[in-house]
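Input record, target 12 of the design panel.
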């Protein structure tokens, strides 16, 4: 199946830990967020066994398909292969892009995290389908964030990508983005020749009292902020 064209506007990254999800059901939260307008879904789960992760990924895939939204798997390329979902997201310390591409084939989406121009250029040159840039703002969701680069750091990477001829590679920022700041963050990250394509969020949706309303709010803010002023 050919690679789907993806709207990266509101990219939900899941978290199943009690601190974020609480006692709620992950599938119910995801389904509500998709109703609200989430455009890409990433299943991120550092705790479950492989079998548990495959089972959850299958459920999420069935839900996401109803909304025509791609499901990507964080880190676990083998899980993505087994489930047959749309792709993976890999960090700098995960499987190398080329190895993931070999396992997934040419038609799956592979996104890469980058927190510097060097990492972003390397990922683009390897063939990454999109980049997750950050950590943009401080967050308590991910404890091992290496560097908080701020909107200025994201803006510099976007400018460097455009200058190097990678202006068409989609980008989202991640870390500390929510309904209180999504529009201003997207605007502050904009470089003259390249803007973000969306925001990736965890707690803003997974921990929200109303995940559908949170997704709707984020989509509205991102849509407005992406219009050049
Ligand atoms: N990668 C960089 S920051 C982060 C990840 C997975 C967590 C972002 O969580 P939140 O709750 O949206 O700040
Ligand atoms: Mg990772």
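The sequence produced for target 12 reads:
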């Amino acid at each position: 199946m050919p690679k789907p064209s993806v709207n990266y506007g509101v990219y939900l990254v899941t978290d199943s830990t009690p601190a974020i999800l609480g006692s709620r059901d992950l599938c119910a939260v995801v389904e509500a967020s998709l109703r609200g307008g989430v455009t890409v879904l990433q299943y991120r789960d550092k705790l479950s066994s492989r079998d548990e992760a495959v089972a959850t990924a299958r459920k999420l895939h069935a839900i996401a398909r109803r909304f025509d939204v791609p499901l990507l798997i964080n880190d676990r390329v083998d899980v993505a292969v087994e489930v047959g979902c749309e792709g993976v997201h890999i960090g700098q310390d995960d499987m190398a892009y080329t190895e993931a591409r070999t396992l997934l084939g040419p038609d799956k989406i592979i996104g890469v995290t980058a927190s510097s121009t060097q990492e972003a250029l390397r990922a683009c040159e390897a063939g990454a389908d999109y980049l997750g840039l950050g950590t943009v703002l401080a967050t308590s969701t991910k404890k091992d964030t290496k560097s908080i680069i701020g909107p200025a750091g994201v803006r510099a990477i976007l400018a460097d990508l455009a200058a190097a001829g990678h202006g068409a590679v989609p980008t989202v920022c991640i870390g500390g983005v929510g309904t209180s700041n999504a529009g201003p963050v997207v605007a502050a990250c904009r470089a003259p020749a390249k803007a973000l394509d969306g925001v990736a969020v965890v707690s803003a949706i997974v921990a929200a009292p109303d995940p559908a309303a949170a997704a709707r709010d984020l989509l509205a803010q991102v849509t407005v902020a992406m219009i050049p002023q």
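DSSP finds ten helices and eight strands in the chain.
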